[in-house]
Specification:
This protein is α/β, with parallel strands linked by helices and 244 residues long. The protein is built from seven helices and 16 strands.
């Protein structure tokens, strides 16, 4: 039961829009490094934008030395596979892209995918994602789903009983709002990530933080006895290419 919740994932490519970076390689490694891994991309948070789906597929086509079987699960304009449960249970890694976490959660619940994702996680499929694809597995966090002024989201799938802060170092509203929400107990204590950092959970416990670039950090944020937020820096393990 592994989740890799990140503010990273695919990296900008040279010959393609995206390339498979160390964070994606790590997700495949958590799945046991199968010879022909099955990787499903879920782009609900971007309205199943065909360009994003194509970029993910092209990234794996340019990925040397690994025969990854890539698929995509789309919700728009209708579910793209007949049996969503069977399709997801057959994967090694399910990766959820960024965008609107509020929209993602609403659409998943509309289709009953929220319960399917719990079953898939409990069956041992590695769940991962970036930004909205990180927040969704937690109780909640901070989001720009409702506009440029960040707001809390508190109705995550809660597979993980923690809150989550993403893009902690690159968007100036993130840290102060996250601190306030934890201090005011709108959100439970949790973990935040700078860009390029991921949180590896086994079950509901954090195993380690990992990074695909130097100097990026993870953080533990909880409410102190005086009612203010306490932040502790967690040094991530720097990932090298694991499968290429």
């Amino acid at each position: 039961m592994n989740i890799l919740a990140t503010s990273g994932g695919f990296r900008p490519g040279r010959r393609t829009m995206l390339r498979v970076g160390p964070m994606i390689e790590h997700a495949l490694a958590l799945a046991g490094s199968p010879a022909r891994p099955k990787f499903c991309y879920v782009g609900t948070a971007l309205g199943d934008n065909p360009a994003s789906t194509a970029a993910v597929s092209q990234a794996f086509q340019a990925f040397p030395g690994k025969d990854v079987q890539v698929s995509a699960l789309a919700a728009f304009p209708m579910p793209s596979v007949e049996d969503v449960r069977a399709h997801l249970l057959a994967q090694d890694v399910v990766w959820v892209g960024g965008g609107s976490v509020a929209g993602l959660l609403a659409m998943w619940r509309l289709h009953g995918w929220d319960t399917i994702f719990r079953e898939v996680w409990e069956a041992g499929v590695v769940l991962g994602g970036v930004s909205a694809g990180s927040l969704c597995w937690h109780v909640g966090g901070t989001t720009d789903s409702f506009g440029p002024e960040l707001r809390p989201v508190t109705n995550g799938l809660a597979l993980l009983p923690h809150s989550n802060g993403v893009h902690y170092d690159s968007e100036e509203q993130r840290r102060p709002l996250y601190h306030r929400l934890v201090a005011e107990e709108v959100l439970p204590a949790g973990y935040a990530t700078d860009d390029g950092v991921g949180l590896h959970y086994r079950g509901t416990e954090l195993v380690e933080a990992v990074a695909d670039r130097p100097d990026a950090k993870a953080y533990r944020v909880e409410r102190g006895r005086d009612g203010t937020a306490i932040e502790q820096v967690l040094e991530p393990r720097l990932l090298a290419g694991e499968l290429s």
